[in-house]
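Data availability (excerpt). The following record was deposited with the supplementary files.
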Amino acid sequence: MKRYLSLLLLFALSAGAELRSQDKVMAVLAVENPSALDRSELAEVQWSALIKRNPAIDPANFKVVDATGAEVPWQLENGNAGGKRRLLLQLKLAPHEKMKLTVLTGKAMFFDSKVYGRYVPERFDDFAWENDKVAHRMYGKALENRKDNAFGTDVWVKRTERLIIDDWYKRGDYHTDHGEGMDYYSVGFTLGAGDIAPFNKDSIYYSGNYRSWKILENGPLRFTFQLGYENWDVAGKPVSVTKTISLDAGSYMNRVEVAYKFSGKELPAVVGIVKREGEGRVLMREKSGILGYWEPEHGQDGHTGIGVICQVSPLRIDEDKKHFLMHVDAKPGQPLVYYHGSAWNKAGHITDHALWFAYLERFSEGLRKPVIVRVLK
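Predicted structure:
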């Protein structure tokens, strides 16, 4: 019996070795962190660059391994967001670290999705999305005729890496913390946690709530969706907008790409963070395009940090009675890109304003010095 088991084990090991030997090297990637930051994020390489090097790469049959042979989590975008497919790689890099990754033939291991989102018709056309750190939602048409209508970006605070949107909506009691987080963030008729709107003569011109939605990328590492809005009047001029929003696994920040349609050379706009009563902490860095807010404590619910980052010029930061505001100019045919996000002290990772503002500074530097991925072979 023992001899039989030994032979069976030897056969299994030999079969595994044979399978591994059948994996062919399809490409080699050189990865470099050009910054002095510890990085834990998604790196990108154009799929067309990989195919150019090796047209035989099968999108449905490849894996990526590091120098130890460990598989690297990846996602191949559909390309719906911008027409160009990108391979997304989830990496951890030390300051100025360089590494090589190998693209092999073979079935990649299964990676649990760390992002999720969906249209929520059962809750007045909400659109909600999340990752392992944060959750947000935007409001749809069905809410507009109700007394509890709201406009801007909402925050659901989380202290679990589990994806919770479906469970919280099903339970219908997400304003109470049952150990995973809750929704205590109040939006109302404001820009909430980093939404954008046209601005003219000290007035914010809010659109209606979104009318159309489309999911462009659906994980496991990046969730991207698009919201469309009907025309509305901005100081006598018709304006419409499309917002494309992406959230990566492990990130506290959303990427927002805004495409306005209007007549004229430019459209002044503001990205805003709603103010709260009480003493909070504010970070305003016009030169680097960072606006941060650590809200006053919300009773027993704790503190929420909100942040906006935009690296365009010109840019100006100020405030009015309701908001901290980042002023930018939209141009026709040129999508405007900015980032907004949130953190909750009770999640146990970013527990005070200093840590939140430091995170925003690091994120901004990471945008200026993205991880470099080159195809070698």
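Summary of structural features: Residues 1-19 have pLDDT under 50 and may be disordered.
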